[in-house]
Specification:
Layout (H helix, E strand, L loop, with lengths): L2 E5 L2 E4 L4 E8 L2 E12 L6 E6 L5 E3 L7 E6 L4 E6 L8 E12 L5 E7 L3 E6 L1
Parallel strand pairs: 2-11
Antiparallel strand pairs: 1-3, 3-8, 4-5, 4-9, 5-6, 7-8, 9-10, 9-11
């Protein structure tokens, strides 16, 4: 079974920083793109940032210059460094991975997976 396990959320004051981590476990051949999404209270889930296996990144306009996504391919882990946090960054943050897992008879099976979410609360 493939699992994405997030950590690092919490309560922080406006202007502060947090670092989220997401580790992928299970039998996998490769991980393509990884990313972070968030769902603010009462709103739909939205893209925060993505990173390809080659390290190309993409950010939502609202977080450019404040958040940095990175990954450690050896550890199958993606990170989100969040600085200068604002009240409007309050949300449940979800990790996402596009990967190829090991199926029956070692067949490669592509799929898209989500973590369980971690709460980030920014107090004003």
């Amino acid at each position: 079974q493939v699992q994405l396990v997030e950590s690092g959320g919490g309560l922080v004051q406006a202007g502060g920083s947090l670092r989220l981590s997401c580790a992928v476990s299970g039998s996998i051949f490769s991980i393509n793109s990884m990313g972070w999404y968030r769902q603010p209270p009462g709103k739909q889930r939205e893209l925060v940032a993505t990173i390809t296996s080659g390290g190309s990144t993409n950010y939502a306009d609202s977080v450019k210059g404040r958040f940095t996504i990175s990954r450690d391919n050896a550890k199958n882990t993606v990170y989100l460094e969040m600085n200068s946090l604002k009240f409007e960054d309050t949300a449940v943050y979800y990790c996402n991975a596009d990967l190829v897992r090991v199926g029956t008879w070692s067949r490669p099976i592509p799929g898209n997976y989500w973590g369980q979410g971690t709460q980030v609360t920014v107090s004003s």
